[in-house]
Amino acid sequence: MIGKNALFGPLDPAPDAGYADPPARKGFFTDTSVCIGCKACEVACKEWNEVPDDGFNLLGMSYDNTGSLSANTWRHVAFIEQPDRRRATVDLGMPSLPHAHGTDDGQQTAVAARDKPDFRWLMSSDVCKHCTHAACLDVCPTGSLFRTEFGTVVVQDDICNGCGYCVPACPYGVIERRPGPAGAKNVGIAQKCTLCYDRLGAGMTPACAQACPTQSIQFGDVDELRERAAQRVEKLHADGITGARLYGADPDDGVGGAGAFFLLLDEPEVYGLPPDPVVTTRDLPKMFNRATAAAVTLFVGAVLSFVGRRR
Question: How many structural domains is the chain composed of?
Answer without folding.
Answer: 2
